Recover the amino acids of this structure.
C-alpha cells in the first residue's frame, strides 16, 4: 500500500516467496474488479494493458490457497471477472493492515522526524558534484 | 525502510515536497557514513558510484533544516565526511519509526492475511494469457 500520513509514505507488500502476493497496486486492482466486473474494464480503469492486468491477477491467484479473482463464463454481458470470497476478505484485511500502520506511524518518532523537515527542499547548488571526500 | 516481518515488507519514506528526505537506501547510507567516514568509502560499501552517493547526500542535506552529513577538510586522512548531530538524530528516529511499524504489523490483520498465503506460488499455467473477459 502507499499512504500519505503528513509527510510519511508507507508501502506494505505481502510476499509469497519472491512474488508480491499483495501490495498497493494489486489492492487497487481488486477494488477495480469489485467495481468494474471484468479484466478489461478493471485494467482500463487503472490505465493498464489487458496483458499486464491479467499477469497481476495470475500472480495473485497463484500466491494464495485459492484464487482471489475468478472469471465468469456467459451471461448477458458475455462473461466477466469478479472477486471471490477470499479476494474480498484479503482486500479487507490488507486495508486494515494499512490503517493499523497509518495509525502506528502517527506517534512520537514521526513527530520528531518531521519537526526538522523543511516544507520543500533547498535549491540545488552548482556544481552538482564536489571535490572527493 | 524495508523490513521483513514474516511475509510482510514495510517501506517507509519521509517526503519533502516531491523529494525523498529519508527512506531505506538513505538510512543505510547514513549508517555507512557513521562507519566509513567518507563519501567514497560509504558509497563503495553499498556498491554505489561516488556521484550517486553524493547526489543522495545532497538531496538529504537539502530536505532538512540543516545538513545530515558534513564534509571535513584536512586531517591525517586528507578530509572525509561524517554525520552531523542532526544526521545522527534523524537516523535514530527513522529506525525507531521502522521498529514501531514492524511491531504494529504483527497484529491480527497480518495474521489473518498470512493464514491463507501459500509458502510459494503455484506454478504458472500456459497459456500465459487467457481469452478476454
Amino acid at each position: 500500500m502507499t499512504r500519505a500520513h503528513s509527510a510519511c509514505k508507507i508501502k506494505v507488500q505481502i510476499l509469497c516467496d519472491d512474488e508480491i502476493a499483495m501490495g498497493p497496486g494489486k489492492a487497487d486492482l481488486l477494488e477495480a474488479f469489485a467495481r468494474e466486473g471484468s479484466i478489461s474494464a478493471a485494467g482500463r480503469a487503472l490505465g493498464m494493458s489487458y496483458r499486464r492486468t491479467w499477469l497481476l491477477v495470475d500472480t495473485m491467484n497463484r500466491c494464495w490457497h485459492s484464487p482471489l479473482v475468478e472469471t465468469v463464463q456467459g451471461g448477458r454481458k458475455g462473461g466477466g471477472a469478479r472477486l471471490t470470497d477470499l479476494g474480498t476478505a484479503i482486500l479487507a484485511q490488507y486495508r486494515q493492515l494499512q490503517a493499523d500502520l497509518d495509525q502506528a506511524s502517527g506517534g512520537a518518532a514521526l513527530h520528531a522526524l518531521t519537526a526538522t523537515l523543511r516544507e520543500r527542499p533547498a535549491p540545488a547548488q552548482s556544481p552538482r558534484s564536489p571535490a572527493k571526500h
In short: The two ends of chain A are 38 Å apart (CA to CA). Chain A touches chain B through 69 residues (CB under 8 Å). The helical segments of chain A are 24-36, 39-45, 50-63, 85-104, 108-115. Residues 1-6 of chain A have pLDDT under 50 and may be disordered.
